[in-house]
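Before the break, one more example. Copy the sequence into your notebook; we will annotate it together after we see the structure.
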Amino acid sequence: MSDAPVVVPVTLGSWPTPVEPAPRLAHAVGLGEDDLLIKRDDLTGLGGGGNKVRKLEWLCAAAIAQGADTLITCGARQSNHARLTAAAGARLGLQVVLVLAGDPAGPESGNIALNGLLGASVAWAGDVPHEDLEPVAADILERLRGAGRRPVLIPYGGSSVLGARGYAECGHELLAQVPEVTTVVTAVGSGGTMAGLVHVLGAPRVLGIDCGAVNQPAEVVAGLVAGLGGAPADPGALRIRTDHVGAGYAELTEPVMAALTLAARTEGLLLDPIYTGRALAGLVSAVADGQIRSGDRTVLLHSGGLPGFFGHPATVARAAGALADFG
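Here is what the structure looks like once it is written out:
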């Protein structure tokens, strides 16, 4: 039995998102041309798209039920979740305060620019790990309450048992589209996306690629799966690769740059360097070491995040430097 509250989600996205074949990419990574499909959750519609829209439909509904006039959430400087919370607030007529790691002196491109366009306010928390962001957000929540506002805190990454329901819905959607699916490959950030998929598809059919956003990702995902109920909650039962974190969450690695380039040049598919690039790099490694084999019906979850590409200077420089000079 789930311990999540009874909530009727609001509609923020466009459903179902499509599933598209990727025969040239499949061939390039060593699969049969019919083996690989892309689940286009970058096309969710709201605020530049991405996986957080599914979670925010549930979380914003709960906030509205509590009478909220303000949403508060936190994340990394280029957080896709922060951008989409800002977009959800704009759609629903709610104020939004974003507690972000870093300071105002960094790049103003990518998601930072979109946060401003969407009307959010930002509280800069300094160079701190994600675990230290929610206490700052909780302090802001109390200050706003003291001023007569009605704020609600949206969890880091939108990943709570309630938020993970959005990806349980995605799991059912995907089964209707690809009933014979063998493996779904997804980036693992704050854990809710993988948890919802595991809840519906089962742990053997979901391969998570850790992005370095949280410590002990298997334990985080397992806790959310346990909260959803009905699926194994043993961290050891989860399939999570940790070999693509590299030097850290925000750092571009060579396998990820190669994956970004491969997706773009085989399918015109644009990924980001933090999440979806790592997911594809992990899929490439999984094929190379036999975790995924030719003949398997494999789905890569494109969880969005493209605006963050433009806020990552190292990736922008590498991509621009690859531009061919005609003549």
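The chain has two domains: 19-50+159-321, 52-158. The first strand starts at residue 19 and ends at 21. Try to locate both features in your own notes.
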